[in-house]
Amino acid sequence: MSELKDCPLQFHDFKSVDHLKVCPRYTAVLARSEDDGIGIEELDTLQLELETLLSSASRRLRVLEAETQILTDWQDKKGDRRFLKLGRDHELGAPPKHGKPKKQKLEGKAGHGPGPGPGRPKSKNLQPKIQEYEFTDDPIDVPRIPKNDAPNRFWASVEPYCADITSEEVRTLEELLKPPEDEAEHYKIPPLGKHYSQRWAQEDLLEEQKDGARAAAVADKKKGLMGPLTELDTKDVDALLKKSEAQHEQPEDGCPFGALTQRLLQALVEENIISPMEDSPIPDMSGKESGADGASTSPRNQNKPFSVPHTKSLESRIKEELIAQGLLESEDRPAEDSEDEVLAELRKRQAELKALSAHNRTKKHDLLRL
Amino acid sequence: MERKMQKRVLCTPYAMALVSADSRIAELLTELHQLIKQTQEERSRSEHNLVNIQKTHERMQTENKISPYYRTKLRGLYTTAKADAEAECNILRKALDKIAEIKSLLEERRIAAKIAGLYNDSEPPRKTMRRGVLMTLLQQSAMTLPLWIGKPGDKPPPLCGAIPASGDYVAKPGDKVAARVKAVDGDEQWILAEVVSYSHATNKYEVDDIDEEGKERHTLSRRRIIPLPQWKANPETDPEALFQKEQLVLALYPQTTCFYRALIHTPPQRPQDDYSVLFEDTSYADGYSPPLNVAQRYVVACKEPKKK
């Protein structure tokens, strides 16, 4: 049996808080029956008292835990002073939250060590150090485990490649296959809209119309008069636009006749004298041409709108004759496509896309089969 | 006090909500009463064991030797005492939680009533509150700040004592904060304020000065708001959650509602104690006031690099 002075226990005074003295409100509440109950104004004092009770109970709990630990260690490794010291060190090391007063008490109680805790480890000899490692194994183990992380990380990174194919993945693949079906609608090329210059001209005119209306309204509010522009609606705007366009076209072209007619004329003209009728193989055209010619020689300011439809029919008839004569190959005019570079480009890209998506689809099918 | 309020507002539809809150509070109070009774039962039960331990200690000390018999017996007694203490702690915690629940219900009710504006003048709204009453309220709020008593192994949470709030913490309506506001003359001051709302869109708080509702509501960015602690730190179990001597803090000057820079003189020794601080004060020779007491609730970390 060991002597009392060997005992590392502390023999705490485990008296519980005397609630009669320290917690009067608590006591009063206890004395009351259920019917009286607690008043709201008593809550604050009750809270303080309960907190006191709780803190003393927690303190008691901690001390008890520490003491039982010491007792267990002591009993397990009875008779070895070094182990006792270790036991205490374990206590000091492991639970830092137990608060300073207790730590100091434990150290003070140690009949063994020369002085306070930090001094003690230094005074130990080798053998206890090894044993100390056993005790302090846990904290050292913890840093070791993270160091071995590398293989885990490797396997984690490789996992996506080696994992089994789950049904979820098959489902996503099937879903991916579905979209190719509704691509058809993407391929539709919308019809050529109004040329942008026309659209912008129209919008500008509308803008001016609105501004005019606003200005007029502001100026003639009382009279209720509107400017001339506001009487126009969209149809009129269109007509106005066409008129201006027609006016523009003529000076630009410089000649009302179609391209083919011009070329023919050029080919037939030997000198500066314009005499198309002589070599023209189309007798019935001559009348028209002279008429048209008359139109060309006379001042252009007259009958402009009149000659336009004429030249168009002239153009087409000349073309037909030339084709019949074998002078001009029948051009398969592929609608407006050749003139429309944008459309051509769009078609090219669409073809590429179709090929690519077909390729993708076959690949996805293959994957699915796997 | 509660009954008076009930009588006055019984006729309104708001009264129905009040009444239901009241009945809930009454329920909770009954439950609390039961819990307290249970606590005492538990304590008296464990009392017996503690007395045994005491006797064994005495016997061991008088006999001056520790036999294995005593050791085993002591171990057994300690284990029982541990279980008892744990049970007691649990019930006490339940009781404290219940008190907290009741208080939060009361607080909700106060905020709702403030918004609805149904309080009469005789109730303590900020409008007609005199200085003395305000100070008493502040003191009470400081005293009843719940004490953080962690289980063995628990760490004190953010907003306990000196532990700062987490980076993305947003104060809730009704929380008390220290707010840095610009006065009319351009001076910046930290005042005690209560959060009204927070807008996630603009990241700004709306706060009310705790003194007088008549003062305008301030809208401030998060950087100008420091939430006050929601728990007291227990010096006996978590001293690391307290500000240490010579630390620079913002503390509420006694009998005012403004925070000023101060140095900690002594941290509290017991859970109910206050900090003793030295306020920066140029009217004193050494630049600091004599030590003044400020409750844990009204001491927060100081972030300002230099005095404004």
Provide a compact summary of the structure.
The complex is a heterodimer of chains A (370) and B (308). Chain A is an all-alpha fold.
Low-confidence stretches of chain B: 118-126
The helix content of chain B, as a percent range, equals 25-40%
User: For the residues shown, what is the average pLDDT of chain B?
Assistant: 81
Measured by DSSP, the beta-strand proportion of chain B falls in: 15-25%
Nearest-integer average pLDDT of chain A: 63
How many whole angstroms does the radius of gyration of chain A measure?
A: 53 Å
Largest sheet of chain B: 10 strands, antiparallel
Give a written overview of the molecule:
- The complex is a heterodimer of chains A (370) and B (308).
- By secondary structure, chain A is an all-alpha fold.
- Chain A has helices spanning 19-22, 24-31, 43-76, 81-93, 100-109, 119-123, 126-135, 137-147, 149-162, 167-177, 184-187, 196-219, 234-253, 259-268, 276-279, 283-297, 304-325, 341-369; one strand at residues 2-3.
- Chain A is elongated, with a radius of gyration of 53 Å.
- With 308 residues, chain B is an alpha+beta fold.
- In chain B, strands 3, 4, 5, 6, 7, 9, 10, 11, 12 and 13 form a ten-stranded antiparallel β-sheet that branches. In chain B, strands 2-8 form a two-stranded parallel sheet.
- In chain B, helix 2 runs antiparallel to helix 3.
- Chain B is globular, with a radius of gyration of 24 Å.
- The interface between A and B is large, with 53 and 65 residues.
- Chain A: It is found in: Nucleus.
What's the structural blueprint in terms of helices and strands?
The complex is a heterodimer of chains A (370) and B (308).
Chain A: E1 2-3, H1 19-22, H2 24-31, H3 43-76, H4 81-93, H5 100-109, H6 119-123, H7 126-135, H8 137-147, H9 149-162, H10 167-177, H11 184-187, H12 196-219, H13 234-253, H14 259-268, H15 276-279, H16 283-297, H17 304-325, H18 341-369
Helix pairs in contact in A: 3-4, 4-7, 10-18, 12-13, 16-17
Chain B: H1 2-9, H2 13-63, E1 65-66, H3 68-116, H4 131-143, E2 147-148, E3 176-182, E4 188-199, E5 204-209, E6 218-221, E7 225-227, E8 232-233, E9 248-252, E10 258-266, E11 275-279, E12 292-294, E13 299-301
Parallel strand pairs in B: 2-8
Antiparallel strand pairs in B: 3-4, 3-7, 4-5, 4-10, 5-6, 9-10, 9-13, 10-11, 11-12
Helix pairs in contact in B: 2-3
Subcellular location (chain B): Nucleus
Protein name (chain B): SGF29 C-terminal domain-containing protein
Main location (chain B): nucleus
